[in-house]
TrEMBL record:
Signal peptide bounds: 1-24
A family per Pfam: Peripla_BP_6
Biological source species: Denitromonas halophila
Residues in Leucine-binding protein domain copies: 32-354
The protein, known as: ABC transporter substrate-binding protein
Keyword Signal appears in the UniProt entry: yes
Highest taxon, organism lineage: Bacteria
UniProt entry keywords in alphabetical sequence: Signal
Family in the record: Belongs to the leucine-binding protein family.
Length: 378
């Protein structure tokens, strides 16, 4: 009898040891962006920044005991693929949030599709500053970066303060480019300045010769470059080769490293860019120190930190802060409400602010130029 009891106890213990421990399911976060086409340098930087933040959170135990999983899908900057992949990602992975979509037309198509409303899922940090995607406020969308109108205003004010009165513009033929041009027209009017040439290049194309020639013919004193990614690097090279030495300033959706690599240091030197995120290479905020430390300790040496890396990092950190503030288990609805309650959100010195009537988190803007070393100088 005693022997049978001992045997039963031993069997029970063995079965207990053989049963794997129960873990809370992962919290999945979805990102859809261009990792391989004309905006690939931007998409990869945003993905890298988000992954550094999420990996660090997981090393510290995750959110309410749940690990966070980042699922990144490559849409190659194709609008139809953005919507398709987002729907597939939501259906397949059941994410609690979307962190970053890249592109104005891409984001507009997602909003028009109704996917966010249907899934009731928050979108954090779409990589666009288009004002028409911010007004009216969308209840599921939380913008991290300043708007294009705010960026363009900063550029035009810089030109005005420098005594420049005739300003040209070169932009792409798509909703992104049109939003830049609309902001440019309003900013010139506000400061009493004159338009001097409008060059338009095909969307995502490196065929910029006609656009450059149009701007050159107007002989501007300064030029606003309203392109993004690979086309901007080609524009910088082409304007230099054509002898356009008027100051050129681009918007934030670009990468200085890519510009220098494609255009060469002689053409890139002196090219200005707005930054809507702190540059981790020169910023003294604590969040910049944290990003640099994570990159050095756990990151990929092949990656170079940039304001775009910071944008992905801040977007993911914002999501993590809201998720930690929400009660367990974290749901899409709880996360959305927690985001809206962040007034303010202090991310190690970088401040964002949200409310039920405000989903534009930051107005941060700075202007830097590419120096002789090929790095941005502020």
């Amino acid at each position: 009898m005693i022997q049978r009891i001992l045997s039963s106890l031993c069997l029970t213990a063995a079965l207990g040891l053989a049963t794997p421990p129960t873990h809370a399911a992962d919290l999945t976060v979805l990102q859809v962006a261009d990792y391989s086409a004309s905006r690939a340098s931007l998409g990869r930087a945003v993905r890298y920044g988000a992954s550094l933040a999420i990996d660090e959170a997981n090393r510290k135990g995750g959110v309410h005991g749940q690990k966070i999983k980042l699922v990144a899908l490559d849409d190659r900057y194709e609008v139809e693929d953005t919507v398709r992949l987002l729907k597939e990602g939501i259906d397949t992975h059941s994410p609690v949030a979307i962190v970053n979509i890249l592109g104005t037309a891409n984001t507009a198509a997602v909003l028009k599709s109704g996917l966010l409303d249907e899934a009731k899922i928050p979108l954090i940090g779409p990589y666009t500053g288009a004002d028409h995607l911010r007004t009216p406020l969308h209840p599921q969308v939380f913008h991290v970066r300043a708007s294009y109108a705010e960026e363009v205003e900063r550029i035009v004010l810089h030109f005005a303060n420098s005594g420049i009165k005739r300003i040209g513009i070169l932009h792409e033929d798509d909703p992104f480019g049109e939003s830049i041009h609309s902001a440019y027209v309003e900013a010139l009017k506000a400061h009493g300045l004159e338009a001097a040439g409008r060059g338009i290049s095909p969307r995502g194309s490196v065929d910029v010769s006609a656009a450059v020639a149009t701007v050159m013919a107007a002989d501007p004193q300064g030029v606003l470059i309203g392109t993004a990614g690979a086309p901007t690097a080609v524009v910088v090279k082409a304007t230099h080769a054509a002898g356009l030495f008027a100051p050129r300033i681009g918007i934030s959706v670009n990468d200085a490293t890519q510009i220098v690599k494609t255009a060469g240091i002689d053409a890139a030197r002196g090219f200005g860019m707005v930054s809507v995120m702190p540059d981790p290479g020169s910023c003294t905020l604590k969040i910049c120190e944290e990003l640099r430390a994570l990159h050095e300790a756990h990151g990929d040496n092949a990656e170079q930190l940039s304001p775009n890396t910071m944008e992905g990092f801040i977007s993911a950190r914002l999501m993590l802060l809201a998720a930690n503030n929400a009660s367990a288990p974290v749901t899409r609805a709880k996360l959305r409400d927690a985001l809206e309650a962040l007034n303010p959100a202090n991310l190690s010195g970088f401040i964002l602010s949200y409310s039920p009537t405000r989903h534009n988190g930051s107005t941060y803007r700075d202007i830097g130029v590419i120096g002789g070393s090929g790095r941005m100088m502020y």
